[in-house]
């Protein structure tokens, strides 16, 4: 049996006093010195493209006629040929005026299709991601090449 101290009630003898308690506090902090560098690299490649091109070629032909006419003939069309009359007014010894169809100009339209070839330069880009950690001497590339259409997101905690 233990001896109870003087002037202390008996219920107080069994009381335990807590002198120290631990509590956990959880959180995040930003570390200095951690860096991510993203650089883009552009590559060019040559490519030959062929495109059919259509153009119209106009041929002009002068046709001598030398015919006397009463009225100026109208512009006329014969198939794909447009005929434009060219007139000349002359005086004849008889002292009468006559219209002479001097010549006709025949204009023909032709459609020509050719293949056009040209070398063009096409470019694409890749992203190079490099991570630097505090204390690292050489940066270690996290990803060597990421296609340019990939979305990059970085979360820092």
Please provide a written account of the structure.
- By secondary structure, the chain is mainly beta.
- 0% of the residues lie in helices and 61% in strands.
- It has no helices and five strands.
- Strands 1, 2, 3, 4 and 5 form a five-stranded antiparallel beta sheet that branches.
- It is rod-shaped, with a radius of gyration of 50 Å.
- Residues 140-157 have low confidence and may be disordered.
SSE inventory with pairings:
Elements lengths: L34 E35 L6 E3 L2 E12 L3 E37 L7 E8 L10
Antiparallel strand pairs: 1-4, 2-3, 3-4, 4-5
Proportion of strand residues: over 45%
Large-scale geometry:
rod-shaped
The main pleated sheet reads as: 5 strands, antiparallel
Evaluate the radius of gyration.
50 Å
The helicity comes to under 10%
Mean pLDDT: 76
Poorly predicted regions are 140-157
What's the total number of strands? 5
Terminal CA distance: 59 Å
Please give the oligomerization state of what you see. Answer: single chain
Order of helices and strands: EEEEE
Helix/strand/pairing category? mainly beta
How many separate helices? 0
Features:
157 residues; mainly beta; disordered C terminus
What is shown here, in short?
This protein is mainly β and 157 residues long. Helix content is 0%, strand content 61%.
């Amino acid at each position: 049996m233990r001896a109870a101290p003087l002037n202390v009630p008996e219920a107080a003898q069994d009381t335990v006093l807590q002198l120290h308690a631990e509590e956990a506090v959880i959180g995040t902090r930003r570390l200095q010195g951690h860096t991510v560098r993203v650089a883009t690299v552009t590559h060019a490649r040559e490519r030959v493209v062929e495109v059919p091109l259509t153009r119209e070629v106009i041929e002009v032909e002068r046709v001598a006629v030398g015919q006397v006419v009463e009225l100026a003939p109208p512009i006329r069309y014969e198939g794909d040929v447009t005929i434009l009359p060219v007139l000349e007014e002359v005086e004849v010894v008889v002292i009468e005026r006559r219209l002479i169809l001097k010549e006709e100009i025949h204009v023909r339209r032709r459609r020509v299709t050719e293949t056009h070839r040209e070398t063009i330069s096409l470019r694409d880009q890749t992203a190079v991601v490099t991570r630097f950690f505090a204390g690292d001497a050489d940066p270690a590339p996290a990803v060597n090449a990421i296609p340019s259409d990939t979305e990059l997101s970085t979360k820092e905690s």
